[in-house]
Amino acid sequence: MMRAPGRLSFVPYMGLLALLVPGLSLASESGQWIDLTAHSVGYAALIIFVLAYALVMAEEFLHLRKSKPVIIAAGLIWALIAYVYSQNGLTHEAEAAVRHNLLEYAELMLFLLVAMTYINAMQERQVFDALRGWLIRKGFGLRALFWLTGGLAFIISPVADNLTTALLMCAVVIAVGGDNTRFVTLACINIVVAANAGGAFSPFGDITTLMVWQKGIIEFNGFFALFIPALVNFLVPALFMHAAVPDIRPEAVSVQQPRRVSFSYHRASEPEAETAPAEIHMRRGARRIILLFLLTIATAVAFHNFLHLPPVIGMLTGLGYLQFFGFFLRMSHHGWQQRNVERANLIGDITPFDVFNKVARAEWDTLLFFYGVVLCVGGLGFIGYLGMASDVMYQQWGPIPANIAVGLLSAVVDNIPVMFAVLTMNPDMDQSQWLLVTLTAGVGGSLLSIGSAAGVALMGQARGVYTFFAHLRWMPEIALGYFASIVVHLWLNG
């Protein structure tokens, strides 16, 4: 697909802007394509996307859910594209491009829906509450708790997403740290960095890694080459912060603890009083649901690696596992409750398990936001801005500077559209460079508190303590970890 003569002069000037709003440059089935990069429709589409994303970034201040502006923007952008194509006698090209984008979205949406359903099921079975209660009862010192919560965030986030992991660990920090604001602040920063780093070396740890795996660019086992670089990204700033953590042992946890945690994949709930029992028990079937989740992951990996099917097929098969087990729990609930009245009342297991309730409680705002991003980015790429960004970044800059810039950009702009842009650019890179951009897109959001969902959620959960500027004070140390992880990756895997 050749651009019209005279358009190349725009490339150096539009490349950086296109980096912010790239997308899928897709030829139609008929092979006909119109370059709209210097057309009024192209400029209008850029303005629409920038305005929509400005509303997304201001979500915490406007209290406007992030899916709303991008869904509208997606419709407007594709309406403009379709109008221009129909005026030029090309009535099916835009339709074919939209269908391609919808297929991309459907695979990722269904994959995430299954993962969210399992996480919600484990939450309802009190798996996370039991872990939190165990950590609180152990009475660790603040420095030990600093490393323990960070380490657990790094270990858990590759399986459970980084947002849920960060909320869980922050709840422990708030419950134990109490009025020690210095400890709570440092521990929250450590948790955000650890959760983002842990998600970078697993296909299930972050949406960006999931997209790379689903595209088939990196095999499942290939992501584990990022384990040591991700560990370095976590450890370097943590070592600097360690000396600033108060070296004291808090008193035993009181009966009343402030509760500021929500596992709803969205803004943390307002503080409310909760009674902290001496021990929190997991509900019936919790351990088996954990095993079913691991079996589901294994099924998705096997379907992709050995049968060459999309991983989402394996995940949906795993949802069937949970549905059948949920049926067993529901049918046997009454008899079990009659035999274990005291235990059922103790752990609150008084209503039958309902798997469809867990599906309904998935964070649909996130899933719909992802739809809007994919369609917006796809439309802007179909206009032609992808070629501009690709020329500037991967031809003029080179892959290493370009991939480092992707991580820095993800600290300001959500890493989902940034990584989707890189995937749809599909630059000619070896696996080492694809691993590098996966790493930088995953951990770059740790540079600022607003750079990742984990950071935004913890600003609400530890409101007034963990703040944007509190995180910013430690940005040099976090940046040192960011660049150290890149150096280690290039040394080990380059």
From TrEMBL:
<keyword id="KW-0739">Sodium transport</keyword>
<feature type="transmembrane region" description="Helical">
    <location>
        <begin position="140"/>
        <end position="156"/>
    </location>
</feature>
<dbReference type="GO" id="GO:0006814">
    <property type="term" value="P:sodium ion transport"/>
</dbReference>
<dbReference type="InterPro" id="IPR004680">
    <property type="entry name" value="Cit_transptr-like_dom"/>
</dbReference>
<keyword id="KW-0812">Transmembrane</keyword>
<feature type="transmembrane region" description="Helical">
    <location>
        <begin position="37"/>
        <end position="58"/>
    </location>
</feature>
<comment type="similarity">
    <text>Belongs to the NhaD Na(+)/H(+) (TC 2.A.62) antiporter family.</text>
</comment>
<keyword id="KW-0406">Ion transport</keyword>
<dbReference type="GO" id="GO:0016020">
    <property type="term" value="C:membrane"/>
</dbReference>
<feature type="transmembrane region" description="Helical">
    <location>
        <begin position="222"/>
        <end position="240"/>
    </location>
</feature>
<feature type="transmembrane region" description="Helical">
    <location>
        <begin position="434"/>
        <end position="454"/>
    </location>
</feature>
<keyword id="KW-0472">Membrane</keyword>
<feature type="transmembrane region" description="Helical">
    <location>
        <begin position="183"/>
        <end position="202"/>
    </location>
</feature>
<protein>
    <submittedName>
        <fullName>Citrate transporter</fullName>
    </submittedName>
</protein>
<keyword id="KW-0813">Transport</keyword>
<feature type="transmembrane region" description="Helical">
    <location>
        <begin position="474"/>
        <end position="492"/>
    </location>
</feature>
<keyword id="KW-0050">Antiport</keyword>
<dbReference type="GO" id="GO:0015297">
    <property type="term" value="F:antiporter activity"/>
</dbReference>
<feature type="transmembrane region" description="Helical">
    <location>
        <begin position="70"/>
        <end position="90"/>
    </location>
</feature>
<keyword id="KW-1133">Transmembrane helix</keyword>
<feature type="transmembrane region" description="Helical">
    <location>
        <begin position="312"/>
        <end position="329"/>
    </location>
</feature>
<feature type="transmembrane region" description="Helical">
    <location>
        <begin position="102"/>
        <end position="119"/>
    </location>
</feature>
<feature type="transmembrane region" description="Helical">
    <location>
        <begin position="368"/>
        <end position="388"/>
    </location>
</feature>
<feature type="domain" description="Citrate transporter-like">
    <location>
        <begin position="54"/>
        <end position="442"/>
    </location>
</feature>
<dbReference type="InterPro" id="IPR045016">
    <property type="entry name" value="NhaD-like"/>
</dbReference>
<feature type="transmembrane region" description="Helical">
    <location>
        <begin position="289"/>
        <end position="306"/>
    </location>
</feature>
<dbReference type="Pfam" id="PF03600">
    <property type="entry name" value="CitMHS"/>
</dbReference>
<feature type="transmembrane region" description="Helical">
    <location>
        <begin position="400"/>
        <end position="422"/>
    </location>
</feature>
<feature type="transmembrane region" description="Helical">
    <location>
        <begin position="162"/>
        <end position="178"/>
    </location>
</feature>
<keyword id="KW-0915">Sodium</keyword>
